[in-house]
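SAMPLE LOG
Freezer: B-3
Tube label: C17
Construct: single chain, 358 aa
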Amino acid sequence: MSATKCSRSSRIMAILFVVVAVTIGAGFGTGIIVVPGESSAQGPAPVAHELNHIGAWGRLSPRGEVRALAAPSTMDAVRVARLNVVEGQRVEENELIAVLDAHERRQTAVSHAEAMLALAEARLEQTRESAKPSDIVAQAALIASQRQELAQAEIDLTREESLRERKASSQSTLEQAKLKRDQAVLDIRQSEAKLESLKTPRKTDVVVAERQVDEARAALRQAEADLRLTEIRSPTAATVLRIHARTGERVGERGVVEIGDVDQMYAIAEVYEADLARVRVGQPARVRIPTLKLEVAGEVERLGFVVQRKDIFNTDPVADTDARVVEVWVRLGADAPPAVAQLSNARVEVIINVGGTR
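STRUCTURE (predicted):
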């Protein structure tokens, strides 16, 4: 009889244990209203408490999240020629973080392109300008001399025509005088055309020279773009969180460095999709950081647009690992200690006050 009672008592206790476990797990699994309980080393799941709160697991992240800076995908087997930063260093926007091994070769290409552009521009200027003043003066003097020759040729032709009328000269001599006069006229016309070309360059020559300048500028832009591919620069003001490739090392899939703006930290909470309709921008929140054993205030700043599977899990054996969640960005308040800046990706417990009061 005693053994039967003990067996029955054991079955009752087992049933009660299962009911309590399922109740606790279901309360957090539905995202209903939670406040953090006492944290253990494993970080237990928040416990359901009030209808005006939603609880969720989350992770700490710097403003803009952690960014991995890597070499361009068009470059294979690159190495770091020079690394300019250390972990924890503050960098400004566009600051040079690292230089890859192809940098010197690309710099030489830029210098060559600059020289070719300067040469093309000089040729264009030379084409646009008229000839040297001394050349123009010399050509004008030649024309003056040729006009004197023409005048003398006309005098000689007039005399030969008079002599021919009196039968005092031959027809051949008269023809030679005419030919000399006609040649003098042709020489003057050619010289005058050359003088005009010295004063005004041909339009086609200028157009060709201009196109050569355009080509040289395009080559310089290409060389400068290739040079930028060998430089790793910070896209924003941030802090260097981790270095993956140092001087002399090959750049791998993780890139060269990871950076983040830790001046403002966020808790990215994974809120169940069923609870998202109750979350609004501006709602107050509390963020428990088990690593530091403290809790800081926060405020919902942004809601995600993508429903996804959970990335952060607790140690509850009945937790819903296939739950669908949406990320919610909670901005940490001014009471967050400086130590939070060193805890990117640390797991946190987030309590959002959907009732509108703290």
